[in-house]
């Protein structure tokens, strides 16, 4: 039941990461502070459709 989701940068909106997660166990939207190579710094990345 793991679903593919994209993590999109909240600054430039690019989808920098693709991960899978169990939506049944974690129905809430993910927000992760990850490195964006376009902004060249750490930015919050929000869950988005792949
Ligand atoms: Zn970015």
3D structure, described in words:
- A four-stranded antiparallel sheet has the order 2-1-4-3, with no helix packed on it.
- It has strands spanning 2-9, 15-22, 31-36, 41-48.
- Strand 1 and strand 2 form a beta hairpin.
- It has a single domain (2-48), classed as Rubrerythrin, domain 2, CATH 2.20.28.120.
- Helices cover 0% and strands 60% of the residues.
- By secondary structure, the chain is mainly β.
- It contains no helices and four strands.
- It binds zinc ion (ZN).
- Zinc ion (ZN) binds next to loops.
- Zinc ion is lined by residues 9, 11-12, 14, 36, 38-39, 43.
Keywords:
50 residues; four-stranded antiparallel beta sheet; Rubrerythrin, domain 2; binds zinc ion
Please report the distance between the alpha carbons of the first and last residues: 16 Å
Spatial shape? elongated
Tell me the strand percentage band.
over 45%
Number of strands: 4
| Adjacency order of strands in the biggest sheet | 2-1-4-3
Give the H and E element order.
EEEE
Output the radius of gyration: 11 Å
* Main beta sheet: 4 strands, antiparallel
Summarize this entry quickly.
The protein is mainly β and 50 residues long.
Which SSEs are present, and which pair or pack?
Layout: E1 2-9, E2 15-22, E3 31-36, E4 41-48
Antiparallel strand pairs: 1-2, 1-4, 3-4
Zinc ion binds at residues 9, 11-12, 14, 36, 38-39, 43.
